[in-house]
Design goal:
alpha/beta, three-stranded parallel sheet, 2 helices, 3 strands, 25% strand
Length: 76
């Protein structure tokens, strides 16, 4: 598969284990040579893994999006 050069590539990634999912994303990006300026990656996972995934995506020149899978804790 050839990388997209002029079209935006949108990827959403989630899994039952946020830590494993984050590590897979990071490893995949680390194994890619060059920049990925047309990448938009949405990570659906835990807040504790957000920063390291965001760093990996932005290091490649991509845009990072995040959605938290943790349930909010209401104090009602």
């Amino acid at each position: 598969m050839k990388p997209a050069k002029s079209k935006t590539v949108r990827i959403g990634v989630s899994g039952p284990n946020s830590s494993l999912t984050a590590n897979i994303i990071i490893t995949a990006l680390d194994n890619m040579s060059g920049k990925l300026p047309n990448l938009q990656l949405a990570f659906i996972g835990s807040v504790e893994h957000k920063t390291k995934v965001q760093a990996a995506v932005t290091a490649k020149g991509g845009e990072f999006l995040f959605s938290n899978t943790e349930k909010s804790k209401s104090t009602i």
